[in-house]
């Protein structure tokens, strides 16, 4: 019985259905030291000071020796100056710094080399061709270096995603967020949660074994009516094996640990939308009546002539989208048609599209002409868009709105705020730029609320993360409702499986393909 229990505890700790919880499992790629050796230019394309060419795979050392003189391998991880020449013709290619990273202490876990050559296109193509002539070497596919790093357990799936985001990060907030993910924060969090579930599962499985022997399950479930009930019950049973379990993981702790886990998952799930906004940009929609200066504002914020500006009302018809860095946050800025009634069919279609885009906005930048507030179009816009959105007191995570009164340069001099009766607003002149700093400050606050603080805030940046955390939470719900120990254990296993898949344990090829598609060749 004692030995049986230990077997069960360790089996639960390992998990009978998923091989290892949240391990950094690989894909179909072969283990370190086998397979082809790949090479690619890892720095950007085009003329530059230094270009970095990498290789990874078992023939890396041979490739390094074939191209360099002297032919011996440099000391591991130390930059050495070498003359590079083409192994076929002996023709000199460049004088370059080379590095030798013997596996497994390398980015991919395999033998790797780096050639830091002068960045002219002729040098780069000469070295790439020379490498291509070495037997066993072939050009790398997009993301193949990172994929090998993942296959060899150097990076978890969430870290791979962080790396992809870091390469694509365009704003400061995105960079901070990607770095946190690359540091493995999300993976660590999931591994901690999975460990909690493993302990709970060990407890339940051991009890299943115990009750099979002693026929106790029925009575306990009758009394408790739920896993929480029988967990408490177990600690009351004076059996040596149960006492052992109680010491290693007291049932009341199991109860509260799983409950704590539910709370933590809920907090992160509520933050998920913010994390996704931080990764792909908040939707900021500029809207208002015709000629308010919406297109002028879009051009000012994006610092380029995205939209046509003209004195003619109804200039903008289609929704025009442009990605911008707004005060360090990524945003997708949309210019829209001026909202008004009684217009021709083309402009009407523009108005319909504008209204549709307004519904999808995370943040509405409502623009009015400060000198034209009494016009029917302005009044209608205030009544139908600004006031319902509750400008001035944005609440919670719902759609937010900033009201901007443009063309302040046309207001009589000395008039600080001509419209104190309007909902909270900012004065701006797209013509002179006055009020722009205040607007950017307000935008920063709004975007920080929408996207979260990148250094402490949301960690879930993809819908994939949200899907698995929700799956885990749902399974914990089933666990609580299970009236049968076997079902309760199965629910815990399902919950743990979701966490495991989030970090890449048992990741399917499809997910890997989608993630690695984001990478460029050489990464
Ligand atoms: N004086 C002044 N004129 C401005 C300002 N901003 C925009 N304008 C002018 O107002 C007119 C309309 O500007 P747009 O940016 O085309 O306005 P819009 O809201 O995009 O117009 P529609 O697309 O037609 O709905 C243009 O002649 C601009 O030069 C401003 O701050 N001050
Ligand atoms: K216009
Ligand atoms: Mg316009």
Automatic annotation (TrEMBL):
PROSITE patterns (UniProt xref): G_TRME
Residue stretches making up the TrmE-type G domain: 281-448
Region of interest called Disordered, as start-end residue ranges on this chain: 14-34
Entry keywords, A to Z: GTP-binding, Nucleotide-binding, tRNA processing
Domain of life according to the entry: Eukaryota
Pfam families the UniProt entry points to: MMR_HSR1 (PF01926), MnmE_helical (PF12631), TrmE_N (PF10396)
Recorded coiled-coil stretches: none
HAMAP family for the chain: GTPase_MnmE
Family named by the database record: Belongs to the TRAFAC class TrmE-Era-EngA-EngB-Septin-like GTPase superfamily. TrmE GTPase family.
Name this protein carries in UniProt: tRNA modification GTPase GTPBP3, mitochondrial isoform X1
Organism in which the protein naturally occurs: Odocoileus virginianus
Lineage, top ranks: Eukaryota, Metazoa, Chordata, Craniata, Vertebrata
């Amino acid at each position: 019985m004692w030995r049986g229990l230990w077997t069960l505890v360790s089996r639960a700790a390992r998990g009978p259905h998923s091989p290892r919880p949240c391990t950094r499992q690989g894909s179909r790629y072969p283990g370190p030291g086998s397979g082809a050796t790949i090479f690619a230019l890892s720095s950007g394309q085009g003329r530059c000071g230094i270009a970095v060419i990498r290789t990874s795979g078992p023939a890396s050392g041979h490739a390094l020796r074939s191209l360099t003189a002297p032919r011996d391998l440099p000391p591991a991880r130390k930059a050495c100056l070498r003359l590079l020449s083409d192994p076929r013709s002996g023709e000199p290619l460049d004088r370059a710094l080379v590095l030798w990273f013997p596996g497994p202490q390398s980015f991919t876990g395999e033998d790797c080399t780096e050639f830091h050559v002068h960045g002219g296109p002729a040098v780069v193509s000469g070295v790439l061709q020379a490498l291509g002539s070495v037997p066993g070497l072939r050009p790398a596919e997009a993301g193949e270096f990172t994929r090998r790093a993942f296959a060899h357990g150097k990076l978890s799936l969430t870290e791979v995603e962080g790396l992809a985001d870091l390469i694509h990060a365009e704003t400061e907030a995105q960079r901070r967020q990607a770095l946190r993910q690359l540091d493995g924060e999300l993976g660590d969090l999931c591994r901690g949660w999975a460990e909690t579930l493993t302990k709970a599962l060990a407890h339940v499985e051991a009890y299943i074994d115990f009750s099979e022997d002693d026929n106790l399950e029925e009575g306990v479930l009758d009394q408790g009516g739920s896993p929480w009930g029988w967990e408490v019950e177990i600690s009351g049973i004076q059996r040596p094996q149960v006492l052992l379990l109680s010491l290693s993981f007291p049932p009341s702790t199991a109860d509260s640990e799983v409950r704590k886990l539910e709370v933590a998952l809920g907090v992160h799930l509520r933050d998920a939308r913010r994390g996704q906004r931080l990764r792909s940009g908040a939707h900021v929609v500029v809207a208002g009546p015709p000629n308010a200066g919406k297109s002028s504002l879009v051009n000012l914020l994006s610092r380029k002539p995205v939209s046509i500006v003209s004195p003619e009302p109804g200039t903008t018809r289609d929704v025009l989208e442009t990605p911008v860095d707004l005060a360090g946050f990524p945003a997708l800025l949309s210019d829209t048609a001026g909202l008004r009634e009684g217009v021709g069919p083309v402009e009407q279609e523009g108005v319909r599209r504008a209204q549709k885009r307004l519904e999808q906005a995370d943040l509405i930048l409502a623009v009015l002409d400060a000198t034209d507030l009494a016009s029917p179009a302005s009044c209608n816009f205030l009544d139908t868009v600004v006031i319902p959105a509750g400008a001035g007191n944005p609440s919670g995570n719902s759609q937010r709105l900033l009201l901007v009164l443009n063309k302040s340069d046309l207001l009589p001099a000395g008039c600080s705020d001509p419209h104190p009766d309007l909902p909270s607003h900012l004065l701006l002149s797209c013509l002179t730029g006055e009020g722009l700093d205040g607007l950017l400050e307000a935008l920063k606050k709004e975007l920080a609320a929408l996207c979260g603080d990148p250094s402490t805030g949301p960690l879930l940046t993809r819908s994939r993360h949200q899907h698995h955390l929700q799956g885990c939470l749902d399974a914990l719900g089933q666990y609580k409702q299970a009236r049968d120990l076997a079902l309760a254990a199965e629910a815990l296993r399902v919950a743990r499986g979701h966490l495991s898949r989030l970090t890449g344990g048992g990741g399917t090829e499809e997910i890997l393909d989608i993630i690695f598609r984001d990478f460029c060749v050489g990464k």
